[in-house]
Amino acid sequence: MYWIFFALFVVAAMIPEIIRGSIFSLHEEVAETIIVFLLGVTGFLMFFLKEKSMLRHVREKILLQREKSDITKDLSESYSYIGETNRKLDLMRNFISSIPDADVSFRKGKPDPVYRSFSKMVHPFCRTDSFVLRIIDTERKNVEKEIRVGKCRPCVLFDADRLLSLEKSLNEEDGCVIVRSPKRFGPYVSFLMFPKAVNGIEDEPMLETIATEGLVLFSLERHFPGNGNGGRTDAL
Length: 236
Hints:
Layout: H1 2-18, H2 28-97, H3 99-107, H4 112-126, E1 131-137, E2 142-149, H5 153-156, H6 160-164, E3 170-173, E4 176-180, E5 188-195, H7 204-222, E6 232-235
Parallel strand pairs: 2-6
Antiparallel strand pairs: 1-2, 1-5, 3-4, 4-5
């Protein structure tokens, strides 16, 4: 590109030597002036078009860099989400595999270690250190068992009638998230309640699974004498 400008400059400088006499009935001076002017306009247009092309390439490069940054951010968030999901699945898988050991603990009348293991699995899904698991008899509308971890004052205020009146599996009321087990065990249904810590609730199916697993533990505990006393609240 610079060689073209240099050639135009050389031609413009040589015009007085190139033009001899009148051209197209134009005097020599006038012809030289017009030719130099046309060469200048040509050089200016070439420079303008080149600069415009360079600006377009710069904008495209900036756009590509932004897209790359967005893609990198999305990939990072995706990897983080996948890692977190895998960790949650591992916790749930390990807990499910430990249910036979829970049967032994219930048989010995020692349910606390089982529910402590259950609480360790619950925390990552609830994203809070506090939760309440409440088992309710839907026929008598009594609280058969309650596991309470941490301080959940907004959640413990929900009585059996109010919980049973909820139609959806997942509810958000008074700063508390309430997850109902999708299935019953006889007349019993479980509710997992915890303070709302984030704007959007994720992993609704997994939360329902956790509520169901709490109900499974309750059903196992009731099979052995001295366990499953109605209305019992255990604080871990």
